[in-house]
Amino acid sequence: MPQRTCSIVNCCVPGRIVRCFALVRFCGVTDLPFAPSLPICTETRIRLMSKSKTNASPDCGCSPGECQPNPTRRQFFSRGAQSIAAIGVAVQSGAAARAARPKPGGWLPTGLGQTRDMTVADGLVYVAGDSAVAVLKPGGEPVRRIEFGKAPRCLAVAKRRLIVGLRDRVLLCDLDGKTQAETKRLAKGAALTSLAVAEDGTIYAADGGTGSIWHISPSGEVLDRLAGGKGGRFAVPKSFFPITWADGGLVVAHPGRHRVERYDADGELKSRWGKRSRGLDGFSGCCNPVSVAVTGNGEFVTAERGQPRIKVFDRAGKFRSVIAGPEAFDAEEHEQVDTDAELATCQNGGIEVGLLGDQVVALDHTIASFRLFDLA
Fold this sequence. Notes:
The protein has two helices and 28 strands.
């Protein structure tokens, strides 16, 4: 936007506090959120440094002579400091109000600052985050923490091996994290987000950066690149592209198309289901579902971002039930992720799901914690 130079004066402008944000009308044109405040709806007036060419209106609330068209330099900086201090108080008030709200219970910390992926194997929960993989018992007790030289972005456990996806390559490790083999760099701009392992040990690596799935041999040789949709790529965000292996095929959550798809080992599409809908029988928002798992009887467990929820669909893709709704999550944390300017293009999936017997293990990236829900 072009910069314009104009005189600066002190005046009072009307503001309105809605939920945790104070909306301020600048120059009578637009409302802008400037600082969190108390979570109530009311009318207020906030003293700000604003541009104007005339005195404030008679009903501005200022005492006579206070609104000056040309304040002195000392007045200018003094009033500016007061405005900044007022904004700081508002921020602190909003943070205190948010902290006072009750949080949903049952969530177990992973011990990681930022989580990226999760898998469940051999009765343990494996979580990738920071520069490590944390291994935990279902009750949250830590078993071990495996450090890596680079940040792991996704992982899988199969055939007594820990398979770790970095940004642009895959590491084949033993269960203690010792690297046994490594793929070549998959592609410039690759961003691995999810891994799946077939019965014969073949690895599939979902790449949100190129919108494709890499087919890798058990020894780490890159065999093929699978791509679907128009333009030879999947319609997925860069940071979440969920896949899993089930019933002899590759199950792919296609967030940009609001559906779940099944492919054979060679990448041929066999079936698909799902639709964009605000109803429970579909997937809402711009990019959902963000995670998928398949039960022993072939039902699908899906997770959604935005309005966080976990649902179950039957083998044909027909909605069956809701396992966890928004009330089970810290909805405010998910709202902040959804409205964060850095994530405006859907760069955070929010939730991962895995299966542990007759329970669903859910990892919430916004709080780096996991929780178990009953599947039935």
